[in-house]
Amino acid sequence: MKNRFSILFVMLLGLVLLAPTIAFADGHATLVRVAHLSPDAPAVDIWVGGGVVLSDVPYKTVSNYLELPSGSHRIQVTPTGETKPVVIDATVEFESDKAYTVAATGFLGEDDLQPLVLVDDRFTMMSESKLRFVHTSPDAPAVDVGQSDGSVVFGDVALRESSTYAQLPAGSYDLEVRVAGTMDIALSVPGVMLEEGTNYTVFAIGSLNEGTLEALAVVDAS
Q: Model pTM greater than 0.90?
């Protein structure tokens, strides 16, 4: 199980295309970013309200936050440079003064591509970090994420589920990814640095059966 369930914890804090310091312009705006987390899907175009807002977005990419008017928006996903097929077509209600991540999840080849809409915490704490875990690996079981002392930070998170944000003192953490409900360690991840005044999301991505399961960490706010 350990060999098949190996997760690579990739801290792409400086490489991910997002703007952690962006603020709400007024009381009628919302912030939305898009994540391409479908392991077998090609690069895509993202459409909002019938127009392309992001082009040629490859797998493992989390976009900048886009500022949109609050309210209902039609989100569509197509292969890059094409208008068809529309592999995701969803109308999402975005509230004002909130931030969202809309993630493309599932296997395209199994006709299971679905949007996962997450509300992001953009409010930081001066002396602490906030950390959230989101499971988007289509063929992986539920997992626990904990520390090397055996404690559980996030328990029994299944596909397309998200934990709440945990408030943690800034510092270095030795994390373990375990099969849910067991002490079977899939991967030990020592020395994970969490900065004070910074919020993070860790996505479990990739395919278990294809041996590409890994973790992608991004900054939500700093």
A: no
